[in-house]
């Protein structure tokens, strides 16, 4: 009985590996898109942290005016 369970486990693991190989071969563009989304999310999160630290500094105010000599 242990031998049959081992064979079933080995066949199941082999089928999972074949399925993963099929996904990698046929859906490589989807994997690349997910990697690109993750990278852009990391950059956006870092950018948001930088903006929060800039807004916490009391010395500088965010200028909402378009007047060129207002900050002089």
Task: Explain this structure.
The chain has 72 residues and is an all-alpha fold. The protein has a domain of 38 residues. 75% of the residues lie in helices and 0% in strands.
Task: Walk me through the topology.
Blueprint: H1 2-26, H2 28-56
- Radius of gyration, in Å, reads 27 Å
- Span from first to last CA? 86 Å
Question: What is the typical, i.e. mean, pLDDT?
Answer: 83
**Structural class of the helix and strand makeup?**
mainly alpha
The amount of helix comes to: over 70%
Largest β sheet strand count, sense and barrel closure: none
- What is the strand content? under 5%
Morphology: elongated
Order of helices and strands: HH
**How many helix segments?**
2
How would you summarize what this structure contains?
With 72 residues, the chain is mainly α.
Overview features:
elongated, 72 residues, 0% strand, mainly alpha, single chain
């Amino acid at each position: 009985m242990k031998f049959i369970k081992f064979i079933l486990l080995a066949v199941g693991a082999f089928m999972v590996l074949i399925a993963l190989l099929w996904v990698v071969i046929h859906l490589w563009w989807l994997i690349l898109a997910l990697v690109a989304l993750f990278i852009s999310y990391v950059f956006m999160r870092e950018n948001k942290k930088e903006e929060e630290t800039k807004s916490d500094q009391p010395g500088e105010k965010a200028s909402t005016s378009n007047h060129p000599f207002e900050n002089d």
